[in-house]
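From the methods appendix. Each design record in this collection lists the tokenized structure first, followed by the designed amino acid sequence. Records were kept in a plain field format so they could be parsed without special tools. The example shown here is representative of the layout used throughout.

RECORD:
FOLD TOKENS (294 positions):
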């Protein structure tokens, strides 16, 4: 699988994830009806054991939702990292390739450790997805490592050694691609060759990453509701403030999407179509994604 197709597959997966999320929400609605019936006396559960089971079920469902958010954020992160690798290799920029490889290795390892902390409910539709996703992350860790090693050797003039590492990287790239395609195959009616459908399903408008204060470029939102998602971790300076201010293109402050300190992964729903830009205030690493919701 080449690099451009890998990025495409990752974004197709994001669209698929949203569909699965809707399905699981429907299941949750059924559970809510059953819960209401229990409260009105149609179905009665008595004793501490019943209360414990209900509490455990709520905890598991919460973990499912949290894992889904982490998983989707991980896909955005992988797509961004892989695009950096693709651009560096296309331009024969070995220093950038070294940095991109290191970042992919670190991000994949971080997301793998994060995903492994979650225990999904036995009825979750994401059980298979989680297994394939974590297997892919293992391959992405090695993929980033060998791209970085190859770029270092290329900079040192060791072309033979670099080619060996590039071949190893390609092997891990193919393995990761197989796992990602397995996830895609799990989704009904998904066309791998339709990039327009991918963008429609994923609803992604823009993504950014960095570790310092910046204003983004202006972006346009067609939908009435849209979401700002972020993932941030303490960097070399430790836990710092992380703030996202949302401005209209005319410079009018529309809201504060995020105002946290240290590690955080969350999202905010904004309303109103139009042209906007973000003002990001932080000194720690972050990933931010804008998505259309309707």
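DESIGN:
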């Amino acid at each position: 699988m080449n690099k451009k197709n890998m990025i495409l597959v990752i974004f197709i997966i994001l669209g698929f994830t949203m569909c699965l999320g809707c399905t699981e929400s429907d299941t949750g609605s059924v559970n809510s009806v059953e819960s209401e019936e229990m409260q009105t006396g149609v179905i009665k559960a008595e004793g501490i054991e019943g209360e414990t089971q209900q509490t455990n079920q709520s905890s598991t469902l919460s973990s499912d939702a949290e894992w889904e958010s982490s998983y989707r954020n991980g896909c955005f992160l992988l797509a961004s990292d892989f695009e950096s690798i693709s651009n560096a290799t296309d331009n024969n920029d070995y220093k950038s390739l070294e940095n991109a490889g290191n970042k992919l290795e670190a991000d994949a390892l971080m997301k793998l450790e994060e995903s492994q902390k979650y225990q999904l409910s036995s009825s979750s539709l994401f059980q298979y997805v989680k297994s394939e996703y974590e297997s892919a992350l293992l391959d992405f860790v090695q993929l980033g490592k060998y791209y970085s090693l190859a770029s270092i050797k290329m900079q040192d003039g060791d072309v033979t050694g670099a080619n060996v590492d590039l071949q190893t990287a390609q092997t891990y790239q193919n393995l990761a691609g197989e796992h990602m395609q397995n996830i895609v195959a799990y989704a009904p009616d998904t066309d791998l060759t339709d990039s327009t459908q991918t963008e429609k399903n994923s609803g992604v408008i823009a993504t950014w990453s960095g570790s310092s204060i910046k204003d983004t470029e202006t972006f346009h939102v067609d939908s009435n509701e849209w979401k700002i998602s972020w993932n941030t971790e303490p960097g070399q300076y430790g836990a710092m403030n992380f703030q996202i201010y949302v401005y209209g293109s005319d410079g009018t402050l529309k809201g504060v999407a995020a105002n946290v300190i240290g590690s955080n992964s969350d999202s905010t729903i904004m309303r109103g179509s139009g042209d906007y830009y973000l003002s990001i205030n932080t000194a720690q690493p972050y990933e931010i994604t804008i998505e259309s919701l309707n």
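APPENDIX NOTE: Confidence is low (pLDDT under 50) at residues 11-61, 188-201.
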